[in-house]
């Protein structure tokens, strides 16, 4: 049964999630659960979470509701535990030990709700020599070897935004863990703690490459391998207008079509001769520099050469394929990625825009039957001090 006050949309409709406000991978994980239909209540702190942008544009808070609780106030922890009593999942992203000191750690929560799935999102994990150290995405992927294999040889590693660590190695692994633990809790009645560390997830993402390394099929240096830009038919090339095309013609039949459409099939060395990869790369680069990105896009359109234009963030939503699929959507004047993946029986949607701090306090108090939230001294949206830039 769907939670009162929320749309019956998505496979997780009826699942209740408490998110203790933070930044980065925790909010993104909670957004994914909300996109899938869960009723996510974000517990914001007075003064905001410190992201530094207008909350109205923080897409990672879409499809959620917000209440404001000061966990450092005398009755703050008790109010969170009142929510926990009615929840299926809790997500927190503090340093190890902080939730315990605030009175909302796993023991306190499980004492109120033994079925609770308690999701912990950190960079270094709950234990280990670095557990108490500050850090960000770039440091986590640096230690796992992931950062070191991205980029051109002889140049510093290329920073892949914060996608590989925070979101792929962090948020997505937390969500997988939460869903698995939720399944276990429903089968057994027993909740548990999910320790999602970005270092663990980022290392796990490279499982195939570690296997290739052990088998001698991967060199432990940047830009020297099949999938890291070292291969001349798997990489990016500049066009005459300063833009780029992406090439992924790995299989022989795709490669044959690639060099044919590029117009160099009779002028390049055999692709399996690694000693001549440099020569092959120069030939491919020279051809791409002869035309614009749009011209090359037209050449390869409709082919199986595995070539695509490299689009910018603002260009991507307008691509005909993505537009036809509705990969991006507009909601509240913000163009944003639509929920993913897709479900045949329980479709998902962007139901509401980014939750405004404290705006849903009364509704959550009613829908979750948590009277303590409705106390008059709970801060409202207008009581939240504006963050300074």
Give a brief rundown of this model.
The chain is α/β, with parallel strands linked by helices. Helices cover 32% and strands 14% of the residues. Helix 1 packs across helix 6 (163-188), helix 5 (137-143) packs across helix 7 (198-205) and helix 6 packs across helix 7 (198-205).
Give structural attributes.
alpha/beta; 389 residues; single chain; disordered N terminus; three-stranded antiparallel beta sheet; 32% helix; disordered C terminus; six-stranded parallel beta sheet
Describe what this molecule looks like in 3D.
It contains 13 helices and 11 strands. The strands form 3 sheets. A 6-stranded parallel β-sheet has the order 3-2-1-4-5-6, sandwiched between helices. Strands 7-8-9 form a 3-stranded antiparallel β-sheet, covered by helices on one side. Strands 10-11 form a two-stranded antiparallel ribbon. The relative contact order is 0.15. It has 389 residues and is of the alpha/beta class.
């Amino acid at each position: 049964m769907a939670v009162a006050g929320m749309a019956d949309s998505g496979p997780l409709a009826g699942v209740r999630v408490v998110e203790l406000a933070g930044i980065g991978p925790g909010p993104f994980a909670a957004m994914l659960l909300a996109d899938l239909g869960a009723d996510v209540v974000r517990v914001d702190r007075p003064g905001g979470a410190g992201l530094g942008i207008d909350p109205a544009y923080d897409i990672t808070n879409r499809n959620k509701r917000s209440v404001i609780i000061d966990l450092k106030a005398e009755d703050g922890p008790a109010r969170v535990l009142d929510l926990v009593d009615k929840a299926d999942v809790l997500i927190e992203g503090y340093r190890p030990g902080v939730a315990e000191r605030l009175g909302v750690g796993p023991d306190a929560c499980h004492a109120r709700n033994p079925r609770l799935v308690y999701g912990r999102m950190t960079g270094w994990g709950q234990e280990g020599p670095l557990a108490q150290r500050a850090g960000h995405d770039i440091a986590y992927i640096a230690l796992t070897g992931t950062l070191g294999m991205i980029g051109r040889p002889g140049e510093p590693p290329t920073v892949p935004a914060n996608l590989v660590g925070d979101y792929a190695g962090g948020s997505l692994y937390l969500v997988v863990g939460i869903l698995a633990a939720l399944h276990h809790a429903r089968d057994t009645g027993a909740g548990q703690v999910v320790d999602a560390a970005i270092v663990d997830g980022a290392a796990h993402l490279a499982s195939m490459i570690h296997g290739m390394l052990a088998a001698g099929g991967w060199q432990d240096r940047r830009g020297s391998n099949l999938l890291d830009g070292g291969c001349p038919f798997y990489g990016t090339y500049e066009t005459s207008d300063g833009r780029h095309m992406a090439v992924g013609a790995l299989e022989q039949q795709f490669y044959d079509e690639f060099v044919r459409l590029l117009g160099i099939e009779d002028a390049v060395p055999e692709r399996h001769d690694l000693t001549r990869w440099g020569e092959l790369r120069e030939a491919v680069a020279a051809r791409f520099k002869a035309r614009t990105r749009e011209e090359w896009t037209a050449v390869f359109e409709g082919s199986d050469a595995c070539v695509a234009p490299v689009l910018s963030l603002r260009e991507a939503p307008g691509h005909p394929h993505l537009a036809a699929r509705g990969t991006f959507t507009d909601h509240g004047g913000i163009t944003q990625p639509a929920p993913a993946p897709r479900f045949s029986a329980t479709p998902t949607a962007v139901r509401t825009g980014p939750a405004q701090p404290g705006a849903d306090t009364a509704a959550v108090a009613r829908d979750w039957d948590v009277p303590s939230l409705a106390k008059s001294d709970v801060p409202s949206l207008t009581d939240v001090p504006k963050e300074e830039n």
